Amino acid sequence: MHLKSILAAAVVASGLLLAGGAAAQPAGAPADQARAFLTDYFAAEQRPPRRAQRKFEEWMTSRFAALYRQAQARSRNAEEPFLQADPVLNAQDSDRPGDIRIETVGGPPDRPEVRVSFRVFAGDQARTTQILVFAEDRGEWRLFDIRTPQEGGGTSSFRQYTERYLGQGRPRR
Predict the structure, then answer these.
(1) Which residue, among 98, 90, 86, has the nearest Cα to 47 in the 3D structure?
(2) What are phi and psi of 130, to 5 degrees?
(3) What is the CA angle 33-46-155, rounded to 5?
(4) CB neighbours of 80 closer than 8 A, spacing ≥ 6?
(5) Torsion sign across C-alpha atoms 45, 51, 57, 62
């Protein structure tokens, strides 16, 4: 009897090891992560103000956060600042942003895209739309990019903007 228990435990353990080797999906849905991110990002502007749970770059993938921090550092003494407007709000000003709506979820399984809309100014009827692109990083969905729909079609990419900013002044190869 004892030998059967040992064999059964070995089979279960080997199955767990094999399952652990497979690519695990992050806990939670990308839409839930988008709502959590925006709620946290808008926290300081609410009445009463709430403390954000994470810094902006802590919501990003490791690589995107590194690019963002490099651009911020380069911008400190630069003639041209890195950010002209808030990259999430797509605005220079805001007042109690909120009324977050998840419009659609799409994209490939490894880069889900969550189209969100929200109000930049409380009580204003106008809504801003953003596309939050996520990737698995450190066991959860994290921001891989923020895309802003443009008039006439297409989107602008905050990630590409950051990469271009960092590429300024470097010799071309």
Answers:
(1) 98
(2) -135, 155
(3) 50
(4) 168
(5) negative
Q: Please state which architecture CATH assigns to domain 27-167.
A: Roll (3.10)
The mean pLDDT value for 37-43 works out to 95
The residue behind tokens 């921090």 is 69
pTM for this model (two decimals): 0.81
pLDDT reading at 1 higher than 90: no
Distance CA 136, CA 143 (A): 9
Give the CA angle between residues 146, 44, 166 to the nearest 5°.
35
- What pLDDT digit, counting tens, does each position of 102-147 carry? 999 999 999 999 999 999 999 999 999 999 999 999 999 999 999 9
